[in-house]
Specification:
By secondary structure, this protein is α/β, with parallel strands linked by helices. Helices cover 47% and strands 15% of the residues. The strands form two sheets. The protein has a five-stranded mixed beta sheet, with helices on one face. Helix 4 packs across helix 5.
Length: 252
C-alpha cells in the first residue's frame, strides 16, 4: 500500500485524486501531512498542490455528485478524521465507475454513510461556533474572538460573520490550529499566529472600556436567569462545557 500526503487543503486533496487516476494507482492511501503513520505503509510520496489539476477534478465531481456531494466531501475533510480521505476516495471511485448508482444517496455503502456522518458532525460544530463566538474590542479597534472547535470549521464560518458584521473589522482565531480569519472591511483573509501566552497577550490588547462592557453583559445574563427554571443538564446539552471558557457570561 502506497501512501501519498497532501498539505491539508481542499485543492491539495483534489490534486492527489487527480494523480491517483493520472498514474493509475489502485493501491494508494491519501493522508494529511504531519499525521503519524504505521510502519507498514511504504512508498511515501508528497503531492504538490496544483490548482489546474484540482479544478479539473472539482468540475468532474460536481457533475457526478452535485452540490450535495461536494458539500459532503468538503465537510468530511474539515472533520480531520484520519480515515476521511479513504472514504472520500472510495466514494469518488464508485461515482466515476458507476455514475448511475447515485452513490451519495446509497447509505448502504459504508463510505457514503460515513461522509454523511462527518457532514452532520461538522455542520453541528459550525452552528455552535456561529452561536458561541464572543468578540472583544482591541486597542486597534478590531473585534477579536478565540475559539477551539472540535473540527476545522474556520473556512465555513467566514461567510456568516462577513454577512453579519460588514461594518467592522474582526478576527476569529482558532487556538487549537494556530490560524484564523480576518475581515478588513473589504475581504476575509487567512492569518497565522502563535502566542506564548495567549491570555496575557489578550489582556494587553483590549481597550479599557471592554472590561466594563463584559461586566454589563455578565450582569444582564445573571439578572435574566430564572433560578427556579434552571436545568444544568439541558443547558450543558445545548452549550457543552468545553466552550464555556470563551463565553463572557460564564467567566464570573
Amino acid at each position: 500500500m502506497k501512501t501519498w500526503t497532501y498539505d491539508h487543503s481542499f485543492e491539495g486533496f483534489l490534486t492527489a485524486v487527480f494523480e491517483v487516476y493520472e498514474y493509475r494507482e489502485l493501491q494508494v492511501r491519501i493522508r494529511k501531512e504531519g499525521i503519524a503513520m504505521p510502519e507498514l505503509f511504504e512508498g511515501l510520496r508528497r503531492v504538490i498542490t496544483n490548482s489546474k489539476k484540482a479544478d479539473r477534478v472539482y468540475q468532474k465531481l460536481k457533475v457526478l455528485l452535485g452540490d450535495v456531494g461536494m458539500h459532503r466531501i468538503l465537510y468530511s475533510l474539515l472533520s480531520e478524521d484520519e480515515e476521511c480521505e479513504v472514504h472520500i476516495l472510495n466514494v469518488i471511485r464508485e461515482a466515476i465507475a458507476h455514475p448511475e448508482h447515485k452513490i451519495m444517496q446509497n447509505f448502504a455503502d459504508p463510505s457514503a454513510l460515513k461522509l454523511s456522518q462527518f457532514t452532520q458532525m461538522v455542520g453541528r460544530e459550525k452552528h455552535r461556533m456561529e452561536a458561541f463566538v464572543r468578540f472583544k474590542l482591541t486597542c486597534d479597534e478590531i473585534y477579536f474572538a478565540e475559539i477551539e472547535p472540535d473540527f476545522n470549521v474556520i473556512p465555513i464560518i467566514a461567510k456568516h460573520f462577513r454577512d453579519r458584521y460588514q461594518d467592522q473589522k474582526w478576527l476569529i482565531f482558532d487556538n487549537k490550529r494556530h490560524y484564523g480569519i480576518f475581515y478588513n472591511l473589504v475581504q476575509v483573509e487567512t492569518v497565522e499566529m502563535k502566542f506564548n501566552n495567549q491570555q496575557q497577550v489578550g489582556m494587553e490588547m483590549l481597550v479599557k472600556d471592554e472590561y466594563l462592557y463584559q461586566s454589563l453583559w455578565r450582569n444582564y445574563f445573571s439578572s435574566t436567569n430564572i433560578k427556579a427554571r434552571k436545568n444544568n443538564r439541558l443547558h450543558r446539552q445545548h452549550v457543552p462545557k468545553r466552550y464555556w471558557k470563551y463565553l463572557v457570561e460564564k467567566s464570573f
